[in-house]
Amino acid sequence: MAHYKLRPPLTEADIRQLKLEDTVTIDGTIFGIRDATQIRIFDEGIAPPADLTGSVCIHTAPGVRKLPDGTYEKICIGTTTSTRMDRFVPGLLQQYGVRAIVGKGGFLQGSVDAMAKFGGAYLAIVGGAAALETLQIEEIEKVWWEDLMPECLWKFRVKDFGPLIVAIDSHGHSLYRDIQQRAAERIKSLSQ
User: Fold this and answer.
1) Looking at residue 64, what is its pLDDT?
2) At 159, phi and psi to the nearest 5?
3) What is the pLDDT of residues 45-77, one digit of tens each?
4) Which residue from 164, 189, 184 is spatially nearest to 79, judged by alpha carbons?
């Protein structure tokens, strides 16, 4: 296992070097997305207002406070479960060039296959780490689609964001699938 410090925008080579269970920290820009954002993009057919090529997206709907100057102050920015947004992964990778997604809980096999095909990775963050994540997000730089609040498209500037675990790599490996297989084997051995 190795540790990588990444700065988006990422290339396919940046992602292909990552292997299952490597760790990653990120400096620079990441985009916050959630269900409503992706429903607008894919179900309503509205292209994102920011270029996501080479980006890292995080599944979040942050707690924020709008300031008199129109900017946002971070209150609590935590990561949500990714599995329910699984159907959007192939499109994010193929159509919009997203390279990595940060979340909890993983994705299903179709997304694992899409990451292998298009050069993407899933970076898992530990549950309950919202306080640390909030500190590692230095600034909310921009917000689009405020009518979806808090599930807008967010642009965050981060420093030493992580450590994140490569839980699905671009080579078809999934930590979630491996754990499920080991658990099934263990259960089977207990019943014999």
Assistant:
1) 95
2) -135, 125
3) 999 999 999 999 999 999 999 999 999 999 999
4) 164
Paired residues of 14 in beta bridges: none
* CATH at 39: 3.20.130.10
CB atoms within 10 A of CB 9: 16
Task: Determine the length of the chain.
Answer: 192
Q: Token pair of 153, please?
A: 């498209």
Residue 74: CA atoms inside 13 Å, Cβ hemisphere, count?
A: 25
Question: Helix (H) and strand (E) counts for the chain?
Answer: 6, 9
Question: Number of structural domains, the chain?
Answer: 1
State the residue range of the domain holding 149.
3-190
Each residue of 103-138: pLDDT tens digit?
999 999 999 999 999 999 999 998 777 888 899 999
